[in-house]
Amino acid sequence: MNIVTRSAVLFASSLALLASTSGASAQVSTTADAKSKAQQLIDKGLAFLATQQAENGGWMAQRGAPAITALALKGFAQDPNRRNDTNVKKGFEFLLSFQLENGGIYKDTLASYNTSTAISALAAAKNPAFQPNIDKAIAYLRTLQWQEGMELPTGEILAGGDVRAGGWGYGSKGRPDGSNTALAIDALVEAGISREDPALKGAAEFMTRTQNLKTNAAPWATNDGGFIYSPARGGESFAGEYTDPSGTKRFHSYGAMTYAGIKSLLYANISKDDPRVVAAWGWISNNWSLTENPGMINAGPTAAADGLFYYYHILARTLKEYGEVSVPTPTGSVDWRLELVNKLASLQRQDGAWKGGKAYMEELEILVTAYTVLALQEVLADLDRSPVK
Predict the structure, then answer these.
(1) Is the pLDDT of residue 147 over 60?
(2) Which domain holds residue 251?
(3) For residue range 89-140, what is the model confidence (pLDDT) as tens digits?
(4) CA distance linking residue 75 with residue 169, whole number of Å
(5) Buried (b) or exposed (e) across 120-143, using 16+ Cβ within 10 A?
């Protein structure tokens, strides 16, 4: 794709996202302004979510899965002015109604995804009464991690050195991937599990096998430092694949998974000086963007903004964990907090919601608004720790 075509595609994607927003607002440039603007955006977002809560206490309850309820609840639980609202109490009652005898918090499918998301919401509530529920859910989540010696749905035993070892998939039968593994890691860390826990260490090794880096023995691995979706089945990337001049199949790295990868390594107490982290940080610096989910355009001319709000959410979590306020880019360093607040302010609708494209269910205002509120809460926490320079 040439530069003109690429620019046209990105411009069209931006117009589509902005079509129903409240329009551009004044750009924030100081700590005080950024915190004030972020909180205003959060307040409007939570107000919108409150109007979308069902009578039974859930969000998108008709879909029969608790994950979207958990994402919305986490946003309320992390807001000091809303965490004790009556609707929040009702929401947690609904969420816990999904907990099974085995400890999982799901209904029928997507056991890992739903349970991980629910654990994170329950941990955010900081309610001692939830601890038995969290403990049971963690114990169940551990059973879903692919580990050497486990019996697979096919009847085979997972051998040592298998590329799938250490990861999580959507449930007990789904092959492991970087997204579900990152969610499980988030849940364990937020619930207070030691960062030296073997589950986190195993997960970090799994994520390493999704990295395009020369230390990865996979035949598809390049050396750009980014991450793909899964090493299973010979590799998989939603950003697409290609064949290099030697005839070797390769996979494009992309933003959401690269941020997930670096965060997962950091959560396992792997140093920022580790070559894997250094390489991933280099990819982030070389591909900085808030206009697109970088790398995804390689999947097709309309894919640049696919998963954009999920990308914002995981970007904010990762950069707060990384601990650097400035991201070096090809055009100069940026304060990621200011950039993100300004971008999200430009995309919020008058009713307080955000809405993305149709890929990955981001046409659902409830889901996308929850992602965005959580991203802005990460910004607030980071601004409290490190004021704008």
Answers:
(1) yes
(2) 63-332
(3) 999 999 999 999 999 999 988 999 999 999 999 999 999 999 999 999 999 9
(4) 25
(5) bbbbbbeeeebeebbebbbebbbe
Classified as helix, coil or strand, 2 is coil
What's the total number of domains in the chain? 1
Domain assignment present for residue 347? The answer is no
In a domain, 169, yes or no: yes
265 to 120, 186, 206, 270, 378: CA distances (angstroms): 19, 11, 10, 5, 19
What burial class does residue 263 get, using C-beta atoms within 10 Å of its C-beta: 0-12 exposed, 13-18 middle, 19+ buried? buried
Predicted pLDDT at 24: 52
Distances from the Cα of 251 to the Cαs of 166, 273, 294, 298, in angstroms?
21, 25, 14, 10
In a domain, residue 388? The reply is no
Does 179 have pLDDT greater than 90? Answer: yes
Query: Any idea what the CATH number is for the domain that residue 141 is in?
Result: 1.50.10.20
3-state percent helix, strand, coil for the chain, nearest multiple of 5: 50, 5, 45
Tokens for 243, please give them.
């064949």
